[in-house]
Give the backbone structure.
Amino acid sequence: MLEFTLRRLAATIPVLLGILLIAFVVLYLIPGDPAQTIAGPRADAATLARIADEMGLDQPVHQRFLSYLKRISRGDLGGSVVSGKPVLESVIEKLPYTLKLAALAMTFSIVLGILAGIISAITQGRWLDRICTVFSVTGISIPVFLSGLVFLYVFAVRLKWFPSSGFAAEDSLLPFILPAFTLGIRSAAFLARIVRSSMIEVLNQDFIRTARAKGLSPARILFRHGLVNALIPVITVIGLDLSSYLNGSVIVETIFDLPGIGRFAMDAILQRDYPVIQGIVLLGALVFIMVNLAVDLLYAWINPKIRDEMLGRLAR
Amino acid sequence: MKRILFSTAFVCVMVMAANLLLSTPAETNPSSFRGVFSGYLSSEPSNLDPARGVDVNEASIQAKVFDGLVRYDEKMRLVGNLAESWTVSPDGKELVFKLKQNVFFHDGQALTSSDVVFSLDRILDPTVGSPRTWVLEKVEGATERMRGESDRVAGITAVDDYTVSIKLSAPFAPFLCLLSMPACYILPSGSASAISDRSFFEKPFGTGPFKITERVRDSHIRLAANAAYHGTRARLARMDIRIIPENMKAEMEFESGNLDMLQLYPANYERFKSDPDFAARITDVPSLNVFYIGFNNQTAPFDDVRVRRALNMLVDREKIIKAVYQGRAVSANGSIPPGISGYTEGSNGLEYNPEEGRRLLKEAGYSKDRPLTFDLYQRSSQSAFEITRLLQGELKKHGVVINLKPMEWSALKDAVSKGEAPAFYMSWFGDYPDGENFLFPVFHSSNWGSGGNRARFKNEEIDRMIEDSVKIQDADRRSEAYSRINRKIAEHAPWIYLWHASESYLTSKKVSNMDFSPMFFCDNALTLTVKE
Amino acid sequence: MKTLLRNLTFAGWLSFIGIVLVLLTAVFAPLLAANDPMETDPLRRLSREEGFPLGCDQLGQCVYSRLIYGARLSLIIGFAARLSSLLIGLAVGLAAGYAGGWLDWLLMRIVDMFLAFPSLLLAIAVSMVMGSGIKTVVFALAIVGWAEMARIIRSAALELRSAEYVIAARTLGASHLRIVLTHILPNCLPLITVIFTMGMATAVLSEASLSFLGLGVDPSLPTWGGMVASAKDYMLRRPELVVYPGLCIAFLVIVFNIFGDELRDILDPSRKGNW
């Protein structure tokens, strides 16, 4: 396990470096003077000169990259072009909203997805299965912005079951429910299909048939033997899904008016606030890598066979 | 006997003491008004520095937190605000202001003339980089200050703690109007260091009727009524101003009861107007504005006056006004809106006349094989698209090809200021109700770029006419002069004059006495009442 | 190919017909549309006149015609993006899977890098560099989609590499390039078809999302996502202006998803839902 962990960690480092490199290079690809991009269009000549100096634009490339890395590792992600506030500070301020949203969405998706998947697997081929399948395909296919708008209109404005925005209710979960549901439905649909096929595979295996032959009740079989094994791929999917939450949160936070990271990114893009965009992209990538690392480690710990396979892959 | 007297006296003293202790002084009884107004702005007012702010949303917050020497009341009359009274010298070159006494900033510091001098001087300070230097350009010593040759403006002096004298280098009749602008709001000189490193403006404070108690960028700004305000106190406990860029979102919030006010646009106006429940609470405000397509007059193809005039004649304003605004706008035949000194009635020779327009274009060298093609820069909002797409379609019928270039508001402002946009769809909202505001900042050649002359229009004769007109003290004659200039500029067609639009607002049942003067954005919400 | 079609279930056939329908709509758009989809007219604003089957939007444009032409743009953009992703993914995946060793390791780290970027933000970063417009949207979608493809193709190439006929060809002296092109690639084709089809769904959705956020193609061009974006201010008054294009997007995405699913099931039933 230790060897696996170390190898896996080692594989992460080049990826991180690569991402930082891309972020570094993109700055120079953006049309216009890179110092202007960082300082913002409204900066006066003095600020511009200072920033150009800080960036060391006269130094050779590798030295610039190194000082850039040093800066980032210190946590200095630059300051917003619009507000002047340090990017890291703003991100930390807005993180709770997005985290709450993501956590709630994940809860919805896990509960709904697993439930639907199990029902589908048990009633395989019958009408309940078909309905669940239809729902899951629809759930994946409807664009988040459309479902968000429709839910907002129906449940918040017309029926008034939920508040229509995230304002004035910072401590309660109520304003997060509708947007989390919108986000969660997609992953739930995805999860349902995976749970379904995974469960079907497991249910068809020999040891299940043996258990049935022994006369154990279906429920017991389900929970004792089937479920645990079937849920393993779920962990991977949850890790992958995180990426889709980050994307979805941009749209959902805009529609439901939650001041989280997604909305922050959107505003930054519209205002050409490059330091903020860069900061969010880097942090997002970092989170994604960390989560995937955790998922892989968890996987390997649960199932030694997979660990060996992965180890083999890493060694090549 | 003595005991009764003594006990009565004791009781009296006790009662009096109790009264004194329990009664709150007249100015500090915030619980007397408990209403909360929930409003919103369509974009984050990123810059709350009066000297450097340039848009309506920023001015809206500044007007509640700060005061100027003078202001416009609900009836658009110029009245004193921080200035109790003032005198103008007979030659019109010196104004002396007597400040109100017992005025305090929100941090408790008293207002004195040094604060006034500090704030006004800032506008001309080259390190501040204010785009509104033209407001005080006529002050003696302004040029030297702006060039960094002196470290204070010679013409603005504090005669004593409560008297300020402003000397102009030449008589300038509308000067008092300029002093009502947000740029001239008074800042606390005691916070000078926080002001110079800009940290002050995260949560600025002034002497105004409201204080900022909370501010989360891109989310909301909370304003509490200033119980110690020097004038009539606001009749609210609090204003919660949210930042809601999406019209649809604001509409939903209003319908859910979370907002007390909604700005109506062509998209939703009819829906509310046709509902008797809402219709009575709609107010149409003929705003001080002009909508236009600006050209960069210095570069091709718009350096040719025939092209500019032709385009004016190819736009059927009435058709679009009828379709989109349903009559809630007036065709513009000049830059000055109706009701303001200088408004000119009648034709300017640029009305919709497609044959003449096409002829002019042909004369300028454009034809079916070589159609006039240009980029039109605009804000990326849906309401902007509504107009530009229609204009694009209409002009296409006359053989003109327009490519739309949407961009975010601040990016648009920058592109236009730098002269990168050959044509752009914008509006100019008046800072004060004097025709000069629709002439000098937008057409005088010294104001190219962010100062206001986005069209880079330059005409020496018109420059002189403008400069001369502001020296006229008699209001009627000045108005005539403005009118002549307005017409003259139209001959050069630096813009496609579109229209002056009314703005419409819908208020909730809780709201009464909301002041909707044409300078609504500068309203300091003193009359606004909300049912508690 | 024929075996594929023969083994389709009922759902599979339905979705295939759905795709063909959309394809035909796109191809025959000029014949099917009632009016010029980009012609505006202030006087027709929000009207329901004769000759305009679904009425007009707030600019006087024919909603029905814009929906029809929208099929064209959605398919073209999705296809172009997918094709670009495919070309890059193929090159990288085949090279990594076949060559193995350090090249494999290096290329896979690069793939991991691109997979780690939140896709929407990556697309947005591209539009910052390249400005807006069709080319940018296609490029952005291509960049986002190639990594997934590369990874899958690499697994396939890895397996196929040790197939007997490959070893035989090697022994006979065939060059690496030849082996890849004549043996490995053709065997990947079914796989490629599946991931291409499933990716179309994502591409269409992503383009719609980008247009909704205002980062897509020129808003005067009829795209379904753009139609939702421009009509959302009118949603409370004329909800159909938002719902029609939204349903079209959903329909296209659903049929691509179902069809892709079916293809995958036929191709490799043991892999159900596991990649």
